[in-house]
Design goal:
The protein is of the alpha+beta class and 78 residues long. Helices cover 38% and strands 10% of the residues.
Length: 78
Amino acid sequence: MSTQPMSQLILPAAFFARKPLVTKDGERLTAEDRFAMMELTHRYEWSYGALNKEALFGLLTDDVVIATGSATCEAKSR
């Protein structure tokens, strides 16, 4: 397997093109919105990785259904 330095890597322009994140009303997200999304993602990943069901369900809606492989878990109202 050959590898090439990052300085010689050619990527398509689409790789760098990013559409701005917007709300359903077409408004651009604020920095606070973006940070909240990043924090939620971090908490989800930590809760999932730590197998902390209570913390995980605390991040999700009351009607969530999680299916992994052959196991299914439904949240009950808190």
